[in-house]
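It would be a great kindness if you could assist me with a short task in structural biology. The matter concerns a single protein, recorded as an amino acid sequence and a row of backbone structure tokens. Kindly check, if you would, that the fold set down in the tokens agrees with what the sequence suggests. Thank you for your consideration; the sequence and its tokens are set out here:
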Amino acid sequence: MRVLVTGAAGFIGSHVVEAMAAAGHEVRGLDSLADTVHAGKPSYITEDWELRVADVRDPGAVYDALDGVDAVCHLAAMVGLGVSLADLPLYTDVNVTGTAVLLDAMGRRGVQCLVLSSSMVVYGEGAYDCPRHGRVRPLPRAVADLAAGIFEPRCPSCGGELGWATVREDTAPDPRNAYATSKLAQEHLAANWARLTGGAAVALRYHNVYGPRMPRDTPYSGVAAIFRSCLENGVPPRVFEDGGQRRDFVHVRDVAKGNVRGLMSCAEGDAGAGTLRSYNVASGVPHTVGEMAAELAVTFGGGPVEPIITGEYRLGDVRHIVASPEAAAADLGFRARISFAEGIAEFARAPLRAPAARSFPERDTAGPFRRFAVSPSTAVPMLTASGG
């Protein structure tokens, strides 16, 4: 198949390009190479890539990039939490408008297969059980509790302690920041596209992805890359709250293989025409953030080993989000294969992506793109981030 990968130069997108090519597909990449994300063309983009430098919100460039394409893996997005009101316009513009532009162009080109990169953040807090009230959805954690060092969510009915449980895809979404809301909006738009065109769409809800090529020293880096950067700089990782936040850390090469399986599900008709199906992409084995920091520090070696548990917190963070990977295994034939120990051991010494020229997006985005395209495009001066 001929596959367009948006956000192709990013952390996850570049691995998806390689996995698609290894599976025998012809791959074309699309990425803005925005200077809020990339310090020029990443070194892992080789001359045999077909990469078009353009913004996913540019209708002409996107339509041209879809010429001859059979399927799309859509990873281009503004990433990070997006916790302030000022973040709302940018996240909505890049992630929601960009996806709408892409879907419209796919409809006009007759492309019938979409693999959408979504996120665990659409769930908000994970699944919790109260001894008295059963399965409950906790309210956002109170600032007073966080300031007092009480980090576990409370039962919304009795205020009692809760036990975490795994999140399945039928869990009602509860996005709690601008990024999460934009990712859920992408899923809804993809479902609209599928119903209107009869196309097949798979949304992959990534959990905490880590691995080679994570961006280094940016406010959008995942926690694993932030900890790695601390170790490289000779300082111990600083862990928020008490380090007991549970996450599912899944290696980026497993995530890339999940995209290949999602593509085949669309192509073979398993995903169902006219529908969108969402799947957790996760290892199925949770670890705490503190465990990850400690494992990474020990494996990295040569510097401070003991992470610092700060007790600090960020509004918008969730406490526990642990996935059930069973639906992806049953429907897509996908299971993560890289263990936590194996993946962290590699990641401790794997190259990270160079920091961007600008760390924060600016409202005035005028100015030409720097072009590193293997194939020409009709880029316009807009700002977008890559897919990771």
Observations:
- Residues 87-109 form the longest helix (23 residues).
